[in-house]
Amino acid sequence: MVRGAVQTSVLGDQDRLGQVFANLISNAIKYSPHAQTVEIDLASSPEIITIRVHDYGMGIPREQCDKIFERFYRVSGSKQKTIPGLGMGLYIVAEIVKSHGGTITVDSEVGRGSTFTVTLPCKRDA
Q1: CB within 8 Å of 48: residues ≥ 6 apart
Q2: What is the CATH classification number for the domain harbouring 37?
Q3: Which of 5, 16, 52, 117 would you call most buried, defined as having the most Cβ atoms within 10 angstroms of its Cβ?
Q4: Can you give the pTM of this predicted structure?
C-alpha cells in the first residue's frame, strides 16, 4: 500500500535510488512472511522528501537497530537465521542514501514490525 503523493523532485542517481527502495521493500516482504501488507508513505517539505517503508513482521531488537547498517551485520535470532542474506543490503542502502545527502533510520519492535525512514534533499530550483 502506498500512501501520499508529492510534487517534488530529488536530484540523484536513478539506478542507485531504485536499489535503495527495491532493497527496503524486498526486506519488508522477506521479514514479514505472514503479514498482509507493507506500507510505503511519502511526504515532503520545501527542503526534504521523506519515504517510510513499514512492515508488520518480525521486528528488530532495539539493541541491534544501530548495528543493522554496518557491513556484514545480520540480526541474530532463530527466525532470522532461516532467511538468506549476507548482511550487505542495508549497509549499501545506507551508503547510497548518505551519498545523496540523506539519512536513513529504523524504528522497530520485536513481533510488531519495522519502519525504515529515508530522507533526501529536494531538488532546488535555481
Answers
A1: 102, 119, 120, 121, 122
A2: 3.30.565.10
A3: 52
A4: 0.86
